[in-house]
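FW: tagging you since you asked about this chain on Friday. Here's the raw sequence from the shared folder, copied in full. Didn't touch anything.
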Amino acid sequence: MSEEILKALTQLFAIITKQDGGVTENERQFVINFFQQELDQDTVKEYVTLYDDFSGYNKQGTGEEEKNKLTSVKDSVKTLGICKKINKTLTQNVVRSVLSPNGNVRIQVETAIAQEHGLRELSEYNAILSAIGLGATQRNEIAMQTGLAPTFAFRTRLEKLVELGLIEATRNFGASASEPYRYRVSDPALRFYYSIVSRYRSELELDDPMEIWRKHIVEELNAYMGLIFERVAQQAYVRMRPRLDLPIVREWGRWEGLDRDRRQTEIDIVARRTDGAMLTGAVKWSAKPVGTSLHEKHLDMLTRLSQSGYAWAREALAPGAMFLYVAANGFAPGYLAHAKAAGVHVIAWSLEDLYPSERDQ
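HL: got it, structure written out here
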């Protein structure tokens, strides 16, 4: 593996692991194990030191944790830049380490559950992660796909995975406490493995991983990035809010389900501002600039949900409400003018808008 790729991967590992309060010992050991499998002993020390510098591991406990938390959007943009750099010089060894049955990274991910102390019935935990990664979101749906009975033991396993930070449990915005949770794989490495790699397990056993990557997996990355980009958009709003004098948000969420006519509806951003008004919108990891139909479709979904009895949707259409649209490749000419012509407050950000000062770095 080239020195350029190793340094880029080291920085990428550092950015990912320092999120959510700093680097844990398990995360750091995962990185060290990777280096030990790829490098000689002396070089391992060099790259561990580089990783510690990038991640701020040696500064933990010195009062800079809050500063690290506030850099998450900046880090997200850096991550994209690093990934582009890696992509330009990507070797077959890197792809194979992630996709091949004998690849170092893949083996680490596949044994992640086994590394958690105190867990039994590992096959059931893996089956639950697999079902969620493949699209099952509600408890009964997950149980059906795994073939496990929805018993107390099954619920306990779900709760344990949430406690470990491997999956997250959320409800629709405005939902009552009786509404069932929706589950998603929260750990990025596990999400990629269980939502993409596991579906091509048979092909990866028999064929060249590079061919599977080029012909199938690359095409799925845009869809895979959707929920990740929603989180980046939320972080961007929080970070950019003071500079742009935007309203403070009290509660962030999203909404997906059926309206009263049983039409599928999904709203990426549903937020309650501190002043009581609503902020809603859409996030698109799109290959091309987004057209004006995005705003029209969003208004249509809000109207249908309002007519279905959702008070927050009615408020989202009221005067004073705001709309936030984030599209990776920007918007078609006239998008803002078209949306603002209706007399509403619209914010439209491309990927480059999320952190302008990173453009020239």
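FW: DSSP finds 16 helices and seven strands in the chain.
HL: agreed, and The domain at 122-186 is CATH 1.10.10.10 (Arc Repressor Mutant, subunit A).
FW: great, closing this out.
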